[in-house]
Write the structure tokens for this entry.
Amino acid sequence: MQNLCRVSLEVSTLKRTPIPDPKAIEPSLFRVIVDLVSKRLEITGSEAREIELMLDEHVANAYGLSSSEKRLVGMGSLE
């Protein structure tokens, strides 16, 4: 079972958190994210979880997270 880490966000933290500008994201990546979000809104169950995992990966790529940073936020194993 994957270890999940919970993060508490505060307004002061959010103000310092960089958010990718949708205009600066590669158009093909942006389209994939939008399409997956649309699909996720229509689906439930195990397929919904699969879409959420794909979204996590694409959004992490939009933020430019490295493999180790992805593990720190609970993506993949925390070995």
